[in-house]
Design a protein that fits this description.
Helix content: 25-40%
CATH class: Alpha Beta
Strand content: 15-25%
Structural class: alpha/beta
Largest sheet: 9 strands, mixed
Order of helices and strands: EHEEHEHEHEHHEEEHHEEHH
Number of domains: 1
Length: 282
């Protein structure tokens, strides 16, 4: 083989971009997002918009990061936290480089498990309105859907109504997660005409921090690997269920760990560090 051919690979690894906030504990935000992508063998890249709950980065720094990431041409993009300049971020992301645009999923990590907003709700509205026409999908839980539509979405009927209303913003698909029906967890997907339901047995740890980020980034990871959208949703739902079932204890809390299945299959102990009795009781 000529040496010149060695620099011309015929295949490559998939790559995805996660746009969002860092959290010092790693339980939410980019921490679980990057782990989810890595669990699927997708090379993770990141643009940091904020360090929550401390501060947001200036819009100039966010746009500079986006310019640097363009050189790797990600195969799919997830947008979670817009920082303090959602309009500028939407404009920068919509300004796609030459070539076919990567599938973009807006998956705002806007409300925590205690139903408290992680960032200004007005920024959520701006992000979804500005970026939806350029996005393949919007992924929201019931609380985030309620913020955008002004209607609570605690049951399946109202979730369906919320999904259809959010479709008016322009995304090809709308996913509303977190429905409850007869002990099942139900996620709804709206394609502009019909609703598809994805149900599974509800996991006892379904309120663990990081579940939403893991689901959204598993979805983006499968899209980066070329799976069709509905298949990617199904695989992501199965993946987050497995991660919830193997939640990992970190310090005094548990996190949803998308790598737990991989580590367990490798024979690695997920909890090799002994916790002193006083700490375990606390």
């Amino acid at each position: 083989m000529p040496l010149s051919d060695l620099s011309k690979p015929t295949r490559r690894a998939p790559c995805a971009l996660a746009v969002g906030a860092c959290h010092p504990t790693g339980h939410v935000g980019l921490g679980p997002a990057l782990l989810a992508l890595g669990a699927l063998g997708v090379h993770p890249t990141a643009v940091v918009t904020a360090i929550r709950p401390l501060t947001a980065l200036p819009g100039r720094l966010v746009r500079d990061q986006l310019e640097r990431v363009r050189v790797v041409a990600p195969d799919a993009i997830a947008v979670a936290d817009p920082g303090d300049d959602p309009a500028g971020l939407a404009e920068a992301l919509a300004d796609a480089p030459t070539g076919p645009p990567a599938p973009m999923v807006i998956a705002p990590n806007a409300v925590d498990r205690h139903r408290r907003p992680r960032f200004d709700p007005a920024h959520l509205v701006t992000l979804v309105r500005r970026l939806s026409p350029h996005a393949e999908a919007v992924v929201l839980d019931g609380d985030e859907a309620a913020l955008l539509t002004g209607r609570e979405a605690p049951d399946i009927r109202r979730m369906k109504d919320a999904a259809q209303r959010l479709g008016d913003f322009g995304a090809r698909w709308v996913v509303v997660t977190g429905g409850r029906a007869d002990g099942h967890a139900v996620d709804l997907v709206w394609d502009g005409r019909d609703i598809t339901e994805f149900g599974s047995a509800r996991v006892a740890r379904s309120e663990q921090a990081g579940a939403g980020a893991v689901f959204a980034h598993l979805l983006v990871g499968w899209r980066a690997r070329g799976r069709p959208f509905l298949d990617a949703v199904d695989r992501a739902k199965q993946g987050v269920g497995a991660a919830l079932a193997r939640a990992t204890a970190i310090g005094r809390a548990e996190r949803v760990d998308p790598l737990a299945e991989v580590l367990a299959a490798s024979g690695l102990d997920l909890h090799p560090i002994e916790v002193p009795p006083d700490d375990a009781a606390g």
